[in-house]
Structure formats: C-alpha cells, structure tokens
Amino acid sequence: MQTLRHTAAQPIDQPMRTAPSAFLEIDNVAKIYPTKTGEYTVLENVNLNIQQGEFICLIGHSGCGKTTLLNMVSGFATPTYGEVRLQGKTITKPGPDRMVVFQGYALLPWLTVFENVYLAVNRVYPEKSQGEKAQIVKDHLAMVGLTEAAEKKPPQISGGMKQRVAIARALSIRPEVLVLDEPFGALDAITKEELQEELLKIWNEHRCTVLMITHDIDEALFLADRLVMMTNGPAASIGEVMQIPFARPRDRARIMEMPEYYKLRNYALDFLYNRFAHDDDAEK
Amino acid sequence: MTIAQSRSNSKSLWSDPKFRERLDDVLSPAIAIIILLVLWQLFASLPGATLPSPIRVVQDTWMLILYPFYDRGGTDKGLFWQVFESLKRVAIGYSLAAVVGISIGILIGLNRRISKALDPIFQILRTVPPLAWVPIALAALQQNQPAALFVIFITAIWPILINTAVGVRQIPQDYNNVAQVLQLPQREYFFKILFPAALPYIFTGLRIAIGLAWLAIIAAEIVMSGIVGIGFFIWNAYQNGFVSEIILSLLYIGLVGWLLDKLMVKVQTMILPESQRQ
Fold this sequence. Notes:
- The complex is a heterodimer.
- By secondary structure, chain A is α/β, with parallel strands linked by helices.
- Chain A folds into 2 domains: 187 residues, Rossmann fold (3-Layer(aba) Sandwich), CATH 3.40.50.300; 66 residues, no CATH class.
- Helix content of chain A is 37%, strand content 22%.
- Chain A has 10 helices and 10 strands.
- Chain A has a 6-stranded mixed sheet, with helices on both faces. Chain A has a 4-stranded antiparallel sheet with strand order 2-1-4-5.
- In chain A, α6 links the parallel β7 and β8.
- Chain A starts with 9 loop residues before the first helix and ends with a helix.
- The relative contact order of chain A is 0.16.
- By secondary structure, chain B is mostly helical.
- Chain B contains 13 helices and no strands.
- In chain B, α6 packs antiparallel against α7 and α11 runs antiparallel to α13.
- The two termini of chain B are 42 Å apart.
- The relative contact order of chain B is 0.11.
- The model of chain B has no long low-confidence stretch (mean pLDDT 88).
- Chains A and B meet through β6 and α3 of A and α10 and α11 of B.
C-alpha cells in the first residue's frame, strides 16, 4: 500500500543499531532557544515511540512546545539534544515522506485546487506519466469530495474546502507520516466534525502514521489511538500518554455513549486543568 | 416625486441613477476645467502678462493641433511623431529597466548578503534626479540616442528593483514551507511560488516606474539637441519664443503620462488574478 521510498537505502546507512525500535522515534529530545536573557528551554526529555500506522494526538496548553515537537518530526526544526528518527534514519530536514497539513492550509492562491495538489504529486512521482499523475490528483480530490471545485482557486472556496484540499494534497503523495498542526482549529463545529470523520475514513483505508496537534479533547478521543498530554513550558515534556481503546471503525455517537469515554475525557481534563493547569489558572 | 415621475416618462435617461452618476463623472471635471480656463484667460489679459491666454494658444498652435501627423523632414514633424519618438525611447529604456530591475530585485530579495552590500549604493543612486544623469550619460556614451535611453533606464529601474526585492522577501513563510516539505527544485520554486508571490509588488514597481520613465525622457531630450522628441520640441519652441507651442506640448505630455498609467493598471488587472490585487 505504502511506497516506502526511504527504506531502500536505510539498512545500509544505519545497520542493526535501531533494528528493534519503533517506526518513528522521538529519542530524548530537547529544544533550547538562545535568547538575549539566556537560554530558553522549550522542550526537555521528550521520549516517544510511535508504531507504523498509529494515530497520535498531541494535546497541551499553548506555549508547551507542541508545534516545536511537530516541527522536529517534519524537519522544519532540529532538536538541540537528542534525535528524531523515522525508520531508523535521523530526521534533519523537511521531506515529502513527512507531509504536513499546515495550520493556515498553505495553498498557493494563484494555482487552482487541482494544480495545488498536482504540484505535490508531480514532485513525488516524477516517473509517472502526466495522465497517471492527473488521475492521482482526481482520485484524491474525489476522496475529499472536491471534484466539483477542482478548477477553482483557493480564494474562491470556503475554509473547510481549503482544509480538504490541504488534506488531499498531503495524502496524494502517500507520506510515511502525516503531520497535522491543529487542522480543524479554524473551522465551524459542523465542518469540523465532517472533516474529522473524513480524515478517519481515509486513514482507515490508507493507514499512514498520523501525528496531530489538537486543542480539543473530544476530537482526540474520537480520532487517536493514543493521546499524548504535554506538561507546561518552559522545559515542557510528555506528561502522560493515554491509550484510547475504542474499537475501529469508530462511530462518534456510539463511543460518546460509553462510560469509558467520560472516564478518559475527565482524566484528560483533570490533567490539563488541575494537574497541569495553565499558569494563569493556577494562580486563582 | 410627481415631477420626477412625469419627467421620467419623457426623459427616462435622466432618472437612471447610473446615468446621473456617469454624467457627474464627466460634468464635474469639465466644470473645473472651464473655471481654470476662464481664470487663465483673465490673468493672461491683465496688463504685463507674460504668458498667452488659452484662446491665444489655440490660435497660435492651430496648425499643430490640426496636423499632428505632418512630416517635413528633420526635426520638423507633427506632435504625434514627436510624442511617438519619445515613447519609443521610453519603451526601450523602460523594458531594459524592467528586465534588469526584476532580475536584480529577485537576486537581492533572495540573498541577504548581496542585499546588505548593495543597499547603500541603491539608496544613494535612486535619489539622483533624471536631469542629473544627463551630463554623465552624454559624457560616457557620446551620443544623444543611447544617452537618452540610459537616462530612462537609470531613472525607472529603482522602483522596479526595490519593489521586486521587497516582494520576494515578503513571500509568506507558509508557501516556502510547502516548497521545503515537497523539496521543490529551484526552477519550479521560482515559477510556481517565488514569481507569482512577488508579482503584485513587481507591478507596483512597474507602475511607479512608467511615470518616472516618462518624466525622465522629457528631461533627457530637452538637453539633447537635434533629435525628434517631445522634450526637444519644447526646448526648441522656447528658444524660438513660441510660448503657445510649449503650452500645447505640456498638455500632450500630461495626457500621455496619464494614458501610460492607465495602461499599466489595465495590464495589471489583466495579468494579476483578482485575489492578488492590492
């Protein structure tokens, strides 16, 4: 199903050292920014192993370094200490194997919806014919229900549609890891739920590894296999990792009826608002 | 109300608000021009006035107004040909400025070090007025024609160059992130992201530059004797004491400058997608 573009070269570069390890490893990572008043530690002692095909959600208060952590997986940032490895290979720069769905969609407004996706497909499958590449684009636009809007330009479509294009673009190149930074944050509640379900459906079909930041506990409980809860910054780290045991495919209404759902939800809320309350809240 | 309605039956055009507005667009400037002409006429008829009145100007230049296309050889040509020659120079100098300005602008927009190195030079040179370039251009190039082109080029290039550089620097980080994550090759990055992202800024520069280029050609031609061109035409008229001809030429220059600006706006709306217009 997946095109493992990077695995071919990997065993030679990195012999058995990482053999028994996970698909995506965040290994003792710290990120320190130099500032005028001295060093500022954003993240410290972050360790997480992610299996292939896992759906991971990251939650935490703003300023806890979630985005920084995500950027180190996508390669836009490098850890000050420690390493992030994908299939045993250290991540040093961005690449299409770790495709990102950016917070602001990041569609090019002068290209049509089709061309925006084609740009990615064309880059990743240079060996395919133009017709094949166009077909891949069409398939993925159909997958997110945007066949009609293919010739429109991003400024002509709604926020929800833009996010669909961004997801179609990301999935069209079959990334090993799909990285999403609060993808549904700016959308209205109904569009948000629709897109969550679409994302889950697509993920069920393709099973790429997903790493997603969210602020919404319900979203995380609906989507994720594991919910990673971060402690507060500075020097944030992973506080707890919650297993979300609901069977897949998930039905939102069904899991929301389960007592387990509220236990998990309350646990997460307790973590965020009592144990690791935001500084402002803690003072009260 | 009843009057308006009864009128609208006979003259439906008058009640159409769109027509009224358009009429207003024409009428208001027309009235302003008439007032200006009347004042001018009054001042010009005061005793001791040095400039001719508008009626006098029309009388004096009647032949030039009627026959813009005449050609008696040498520099004795109708105003159309004078303007046409000047516009040709502008077209060449301006195109060169656009090509060089956009290229260097992209370069300094992309490279911080080159930008730092060249910035003071650009800041000093761009404030040099067109007329000040004329002697050095004549000294360096020896001939009128290339010197005139150079003056246009050097006057028009700065806004193009500086705006292009700003446009390249202002490319949203999001777009660059897309390029990075897809590892777009340079050529594709240039055509799919950099150039379209900077295009609105480039157009701003081009539009400022066309106005400057037209200013520059007049300045350049005035000191270059013996060439066909509206600038030298003015100078020639001054030396012969034909003040009315000077005034008519000024009107031509103003109209052409205005049309050039309109043309740039038109090109901009044609090329730039709606979403990117500033």
